[in-house]
Amino acid sequence: MPVRTTPAHTQTIAGRLGEITVTSFTDRPRTALLVIDVQEDVMSSAWQAAEVVARIGALVDRARAEGTPVVWVRHQDYYLPPDSQPWQIVAALHPSAREPIVEKRFRSAFEGTDLEAVLGVLDVGRLVVCGAQSDFCVRHTIHAALEKGYDVALASDAHTTTDAEIDGLTIPAELIVAHQNSATREYALPGRTSRIAPHDQIRVS
């Protein structure tokens, strides 16, 4: 069953449903740093919030110095109404006037937004991901990016979340972050790469 592709290198794999064509964006040579939902409310109770924000700041500085586009994602919800204080990106981080901010309402930063158009204009085929929350918007954006054909690298020490309460069981945020790192490192799709590395070792260009 064929899927729609952009001009790029293609691979054909055989499966029970026949031949499936998949692709990666070899016509988009650039990398972008994608900073997800580092907002006042989101980070207020997040695990190691100050340390994670500092590492994201270092990534942003390095990306700018290397000429890598920085794309910011900001969530809206009933508890994050636009222009409210909780909705704002944390004060320690400062998007420049030239850096796009993608407003979203769903966990995936691609769903119902112009993110894909923004990345297309920038010729981006690889994303370096950081931000919050590890088990929600970071996770779903990574999955969507890979499925759409992007290569992904997750800054393993520059994303965070809160403890999760599920059926009386508490899952510590630290374990959720570690699990997301493991899942990203081991997530393989044809023609695409999924990698993790600490913020000071990850390639941003």
What does this structure look like?
There is one protein chain. This protein has 205 residues and is α/β, with parallel strands linked by helices. The chain has one domain (25-197): Rossmann fold (3-Layer(aba) Sandwich). 28% of the residues lie in helices and 28% in strands. It is built from five helices and ten strands. It has helices spanning 40-44, 49-65, 115-121, 134-148, 173-185; strands at 10-15, 18-23, 30-36, 70-75, 101-104, 124-132, 151-160, 164-166, 169-171, 194-197. The strands form three sheets. A six-stranded parallel beta sheet has the order 5-4-3-6-7-10. The protein has a two-stranded antiparallel ribbon with strand order 1-2. Strands 8-9 form a two-stranded antiparallel ribbon. α4 (134-148) runs parallel beside α5 (173-185). The chain is globular and about 45 Å long. The chain starts with 9 loop residues before the first strand and ends in an 8-residue tail after the last strand.
Q: How would you summarize this macromolecular structure in one to three sentences?
A:
The protein has five helices and ten strands. The chain is an alpha/beta fold. The strands form three sheets. Strands 5-4-3-6-7-10 form a six-stranded parallel sheet. It has a two-stranded antiparallel ribbon with strand order 1-2.
